[in-house]
Automatic annotation (TrEMBL):
Organism, as annotated: Streptomyces rutgersensis
UniProt-recorded name of the protein: AAA family ATPase
Protein family: Belongs to the AfsR/DnrI/RedD regulatory family.
Ranges annotated as DNA-binding: 1-94
Keywords: DNA-binding, Transcription, Transcription regulation, Two-component regulatory system
Claim: DNA-binding is one of the keywords in the record: yes
Keyword DNA repair: no
Amino acid sequence: MRFQLLGPLSLHDGPESVVLQPAKPTVLLTALLLHANSVVSADYLQRAIWGEEQPATAKAALQTCVLRLRRLFTKHGVTETPIEAVPGGYRITAGPHTLDLIGFRERVRRAAALSHDPHAELAALRDALALWQGPLLANVRSDLLHRDEVPRLAEERLRAVERLGDLHLRLGRCGEALGDLWEVTRAHPGHERFHEQLVEALYRSGRQAEALAEYRRVKEYLLQELGVDPGSALQRLELAILRGDDLGAAEPAARPGGGQVPVPAAPLAAPKTPELVTALTAVPDFAGRADEVAALTAHLTADTAHRPGGPLTVVLSGAPGIGKSALARHVATRLADRFPGGRLLVRMTGPDGLPYDPGTVAGQLTRALEARPPGSGTLLVLDDAVDADQVRPLLAACSGGAVVVTSRRGLAGLVATHGGRVVRLGPFRPAESHALLRAVLGAERVDAEPDEARRVAESCGHHPLALRIMTARLQTRPGLRLADSAGWLAAGQAGRLALTDAPGLSVPEVLGEALGRLEPPLADAFLEVAALGPACATDEAATALGLCEADTEQLLDRLADAGFLEEGPPGPYRTLPLLRAWAGGARRPPGGPAAHPQPADTARAGRCPHCRTGRKPTPAPHEGPRPALPQAHRTGGAPREHPPDAAGPPSARRRECEDTA
């Protein structure tokens, strides 16, 4: 049994986790765990629970809270972390394997001891920071703990994040550092060292204009909010950028106050290829998928000593935004102790949706694995693979350990040649959606409007991407009722959900990019099939598409393999609610009637666009040249309007093809 303090207070037992409800025993447990292995005075515990104005019966009530907490431990099988009554107060015993806070501090100390090896220190810090799982103590109602303890813990994390940024810059991994630095500078706008790191990383990545713009932004913030100019380090950095100095990868020089100053050194060219192999980070507020987590954990921790050939492999497939990467990262984070060689994230696809060259990825992966201790098992997450051919060279580079491949495709060919387990993810179950809402928004807010919370989840199609976006919107709008959001979503808005400051968290962006990976005929066909309703049979789709049933079945099967449809023969094909809601908007240009995309216009090339006969259909009387048939925009936007087809409806064209075969 493990306790999680670095996030909402929760108990973890293997794949099972329980987020404790906001209550007085929860405050008591938090106060004890924050000072684990030390005596915590009864007076401090009473102030943590009731504040400065304590009831007259506080001492007796504290004893009652201890009894309730011990009953909670018994209920959940907690035996290795006893609560002891000692003179003057209480004490709880915990270690790095039972309390994440102790584990974090131990890993940070271990990282500091590796300062002679920056690669190893960076990996150790990544492992330490992976233990942080979201907002600190979100389910703990104690003014004292949030006033005195939370800032102290947050500062410990910020010191580790700052050191991580320094290591990235020292090793020349500027592109890898940018993601973390964008996030932390926005969350802590007054922390100048983070801004220094971001400006330097941007400049050394060849983005001089953005670096100067970021400097001006933080300068304006400091003047308006604090009435001060940027520190001397930031000012020297701006001057170096304006002069065009080369900022090398040397260890930054120390400065008074604990920060560091970038030092001009040997020229360092901006990397042409991004860092594709990085240490895994944890997923904040992960919820649901208990069955999948348990199955994956059992499979990835199976005895592989006598397994011949390559690594143990799992393929996670499913629709865009269904949570494949989050599940893979969450499981990998939980298995830190089982893979002493570490856990690495391997990016298989770029932000533009184009796959990285397998040889380039394999080269980076080989170098990363060579840095690991010999014979140590490593867990790899190959994220967003586009096909089996992209994965095979990477499996060949791994002689042991385990690999989790996430992909929108089923990768049946990879499983056929290399074996492994396949897990296809669908939407959340209603209980999982509810758990996510409570984990992110807080139990009090969700429990106050249970029916509206259910409606929000249903309107999002229980789709993890939509739920994540919706909960983020609600977090930034604490005065907004769930009922208001449920009514807004009911108007068909789920397909337009987006966060303006995070392009990756946008239903139109994610689904549009995914559709853009498909060949135009497949993209067009999906938009048409999605308009048929939640489910459709092959003959129904054939009528809508104007294709032979044999060709329609093949096309639908390819869409299912690509993650855009579910199930299929012998039953009907289904379209997930969120994809259907988005497709409805993608088919209808703003201010105009619905467009009707068709499969590729192959008629002009001498082949029938509706079957494989190789013959053109006989033109209808008085028919002129066929207009060019549109293709869906590769960015997921609406197809262009086109004139009505003079040859008649799709069903007539399909019959015409069959008659001429």
